[in-house]
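Fill in residues.
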């Protein structure tokens, strides 16, 4: 799969945005751990993000190789809200399992940090390229 530099940047940005949205939703679940009748919520987006990156028909035509393209179909990627059909954890019909939520938050945070590192490396490479071109 040939992915342009602009598409990689767009993918990292969108991934960070969606990971942040998921982290906020997981935190909301934890905040409602003692709310009677509360059903946990989550979002899914990985498959949509993957599909958007693979779409060839939605690419933007460019009149010059110097124009930034790609990434436009990533902007439209929106997460799907999921409310799992799960039995209540407590007698109050609340479906939030604190241990599970904390585990998912930890994994999500780790994936967010990986995206931050990828963006940092991209920016360092860009800075190096600019510095070397000016020499």
């Amino acid at each position: 799969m040939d992915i342009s530099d602009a598409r990689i940047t767009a993918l990292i940005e969108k991934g960070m945005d969606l990971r942040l949205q998921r982290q906020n939703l997981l935190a909301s679940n934890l905040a409602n751990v003692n709310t009677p009748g509360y059903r946990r919520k989550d979002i899914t987006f990985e498959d949509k993000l993957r599909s958007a990156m693979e779409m060839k028909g939605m690419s933007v035509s460019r009149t010059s190789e110097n124009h930034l393209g790609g990434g436009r179909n990533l902007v439209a990627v929106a997460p799907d809200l999921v409310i799992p059909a799960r039995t209540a954890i407590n007698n109050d019909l609340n479906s939030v399992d604190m241990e599970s939520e904390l585990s998912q938050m930890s994994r999500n945070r780790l994936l967010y940090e990986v995206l931050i590192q990828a963006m940092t490396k991209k920016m360092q490479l860009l800075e190096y390229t600019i510095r070397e071109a000016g020499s």
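Residues 57-69 have pLDDT under 50 and may be disordered.
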